[in-house]
Every structure is written in C-alpha cells, then in structure tokens.
Amino acid sequence: MSNELEFRLTLYPTPILRKRAKEVGAFDDALKATVESMYALMFESRGVGLAAPQVGLDQRILVLNDAGDADKPEQNLTLINPTIVAREGDKTLHEEGCLSFPGIYGEIERPDRCTVEAFDVDGNPMRREFEGFVSRIIQHEYDHLEGILLVDRLSPADKLRNRHALQELVDNFRAARA
Ligand code: CO
C-alpha cells in the first residue's frame, strides 16, 4: 500500500524527541492518514511500536503491533491521547531497542501490567488492561510522548556498552546540522 505522507524516522538526539507531545484535537481524515503512514513506516522498519514524535510530529499518537507483522492487522493497536492510569505486577527485565536508537539495546525493568485510557482513531474512548510484551511496548512508546527515551532507562553498564553507538548518533546529528 502506498502512502501519501512520507515519514522518516526521527533519530536521537533530535530535540522533538525530548518534548512532551501535544494532545490530538481532531479525529479527522488527516489523523487517519497519519496513523496509516506510521504503521507503514513501523512495519518497513521492522518495529513493533512507533510514537508520533519519532516521525517528527508533536502529537500524542501511538501505533503498535506486537507481532511486528503487517499481515497480522488484527494485532494493530492505535492509541490516541493515551494515559497510563495504573502500572502493576512484578517488575521484569527485558531487552528493548528503539527505532530512534538504531543498533542500541539494553535490559529495561518495567512492571508487567498497565491500564490505559485512550481513544481509537475514530475518537471512541477505551480503557483496557495489558500485560506482558504488549504492556511493555505501550510503556516504551508512552515514554516517547513524555519525552523519555531509551537512553534514560539504560543501566550504567548498558550505557557504557553502547557508548560508541550513542556518540555516533550525536556526531551524525551534529554533522547533518553543520
Ligand atoms: Co522507542
């Protein structure tokens, strides 16, 4: 499927990734087109989740598919203006990456379950509890809407292990701006 909007991934340390994203105001065709293009880029990039700031948009939009598979659209989950209203359960460690930090991974600790209030792309409110991998993806992507990034959650050991890749991202960003 071709898309009218051509998004590109916003990489660390682009400043928009550090902003608290703004609420979506209108559930219109433009929002639907944005969501479609975000899914297209997420699948193309072999991700399982994507937040609007990662395509340069200052909006509270998340898309995810825990199978990372465009042929499993029943796994798609679109969250507009989401709020995580509860985080519960045992804290678990799991390796996470991020499309804005290519090649960088770390073991991140998060509670197993979260309860989310959000709207779907048509503006219908929802409240659902998630657990396991989907819950982890939601918590990771929700961080993006708050300006919190993978690098903030890396352990000191993982930060040290990834220091060259992190520095390369910073160098590339500066070079592109020079
Ligand atoms: Co991310």
Give the number of domains. Answer: 1
CATH architecture: Alpha-Beta Complex
Bound molecules: cobalt (II) ion
CATH superfamily: Peptide deformylase
User: Which percent range describes the beta-strand content?
Assistant: 25-35%
Question: What's the tally of helices?
Answer: 5
Low-confidence stretches: none
What do the pLDDT scores average to?
Answer: 96
Rg over CA atoms, rounded to whole Å, is: 16 Å
Shape descriptor: globular
Which class do the helix and strand fractions yield?
alpha+beta
- Compute the separation of the termini in Å: 36 Å
Strand order of the largest sheet: 1-2-3-4-5
Q: How helical, in percent, are the residues? A: 25-40%
State the total count of DSSP E strands.
Answer: 5
The CATH topology turns out to be Peptide Deformylase
> Largest sheet at a glance?
5 strands, antiparallel
SSE arrangement, N to C: HEEEEEHHHH
- Would you state the CATH class? Alpha Beta
Descriptors for this entry?
178 residues; alpha+beta; Peptide Deformylase; 28% strand; binds cobalt (II) ion
